[in-house]
Amino acid sequence: MAYQLRWGIISTGGISHQFVKDLLIDPNTRNVQDVIHKITAVGSRSIEKAREFIDNLGLAGDKDVKAYGSYDEVYNNADVDVIYVATPHTYHYENSLDAIKAKKHVLCEKPVTSNCAELRSLLAAAKENGVFFMEAMWTRFQPSSLEFKKISDSGELGLPVTVHADLSGNFNIENIPRTHRILDPILGGGALLDLGPYPLVWAIMALYENPANGGTKPTITGSILKTPLTGVDCNTSITLNFNQSKLAAQAVLSCSINIDSMNPGVTIRYERGAIKVASPIFVPKSFVVQYFDEKGAVTKEKERAFEYVGRGMYFQADEVARCIRDAQMESSLWGHDKSLLEMEIFDEVRKQGGYELPPGVEKVL
Ligand SMILES: NC(=O)c1ccc[n+]([C@@H]2O[C@H](COP(=O)([O-])OP(=O)(O)OC[C@H]3O[C@@H](n4cnc5c(N)ncnc54)[C@H](OP(=O)(O)O)[C@@H]3O)[C@@H](O)[C@H]2O)c1
To answer: Which of 14, 31, 149, 245 could form a disulfide with 216 if both were Cys (CB 3.0 to 4.6 A apart)?
Structure first.
């Protein structure tokens, strides 16, 4: 019998729609038979929007799916096991905390919180209430990432030496409302919190998780160019040095909100080769492995490509279902330590770049 996980969805915006659409795809299409997903509640600040969301996803005829005009009613629904939080960044803390206090497991969108102090507080609450908590770092669960990890950690290319990764997007910032979540500092606007998690996940997979690193944290340098429109970070770069262990490697990461991404979006160079990951780096469908000779010339090149039904947001959901089924409080692939490292890095980059969120936005300091 497959284990069924019952989801409550918090908010009806763009990514909630994508996520639920993927949850509704038959797991057999991805060769998964041990877990299945069921939507039992959708919460919005407006009941009409919750109903419209359910309708748009073809769930209107399903009597088991409840529409609510508040988030609290979802947390308090006994037919919900896990809450998916997909509100703007600066609401993740309070929405997740409310869910945890109602003893619900939580999958929270990236960036997991506005700062590291908020995340520490959430993790303490999750522990106290005995619930599973994970940041929705769906990239880590992609088939391409799992295959990348096998090659990267195997040593067949030698140790990693540098990671260059960028995720950018041209949001047409001159012509969108200042209240758009990418521009509004009250919503944690800017490149770092919105796009930064994705170049960073590649540095974490390639360097932080590399067996030679032994779990050692990097030193952090950050630089920010702000937009005069609202003062949020427009172009941000991060340098991470991993040199406290057997690994001596550097990651150079960037994100921008006024220009499109590069392709390949990630290049990882090793002692005897390189891996180039195709954009979009949050859900890559292919990468190329290059093997070098002693002079650094490419002797062999192999492309790996991946295909599946839908957008691929269900791979993380399958992980959540298995962890909850097995009474685990965190995922072994994207555990609390990695979200903590992410938020420590973002805090430090914002500090070095002089980007302070408006007073009251960060709920824990
Ligand atoms: N994993 C990914 O690939 C991915 C992609 C995009 C976004 N995200 C993340 O998901 C989160 C949501 O992004 P999104 O693109 O879905 O945003 P969105 O389309 O603007 O939706 C956000 C939803 O949050 C709710 N909300 C609650 N308080 C709000 C407020 N003060 N202002 C605006 N909306 C508010 C609204 O739903 P109700 O009115 O129904 O309550 C709104 O529809 C962000 O943290 C983002 O980083 C992840």
So the answer is: 245
